[in-house]
Amino acid sequence: MTAPISAPLTPYATLLGFTRYVDRTGPTKASFVGGLRRQRASRSGFNPHGQFVKALKADIAFHTGGTHLAQVVDVVKPRWRPLYQSLVPGATAWLHSLGEPAGVDLAQTRDALAMLGDLPIKINPHFGIRYADGRAEAVRLHFDEAPPSEEATLAALHLTARHMDAVLPHAEPVLVDVRRGSTHRMPDNARPDEIERWLAGEAAAFRAIWSAAA
What we know:
It is a single chain. By secondary structure, this protein is of the alpha/beta class. It has eight helices and eight strands; from the N terminus they run E-H-H-H-H-H-E-E-E-E-E-H-H-E-E-H. It has a domain at about 15-40 and about 105-214. It is about 45% helix and about 15% strand. Strand 3 (about 110-115) and strand 4 form a beta hairpin. The longest helix is centred in the last third of the chain and has 21 residues, at about 190-210.
């Protein structure tokens, strides 16, 4: 009996995966895409930040100013406690930077599928916030020890802004560097047409590497 032939894996990236890819240079790009492809094939992957994000969202939704963040360190599994302890101070500082807790509410965001040439990219902010004056932001969190690079930041903000009508209409995309409690926004001098051309080239190379790794 002939073994069934598995269907080829279609090139695909999450926003996190793609922004980490554009941050790399030379041979590290190929090894990174190969790793993504193997992870997709094995359907592996675990998000250690899930409870942290829930706690942060709860503090925004219930206007508690950091109470849930302070408590989550004690309830998370011991192996993740050092990670959470390193994230809470910056996240709490960012939360306080938003102003009075009662003046900020949680807003529902939706995932969107961006196409860069033939490469699908899942756009998935962690949550949205809405201020008392009506302004809204679609928030993507950056958890890495190193600050987000200019390239990764531009890619994340541009692709989210490009699909904001689906994600959270009339909102501004922001990237929050959790460890440092800082917010990154699209620079005033950004050239969307140039960013689009750059990302299209990166996406084409991503697809080529993905296919070569088959």
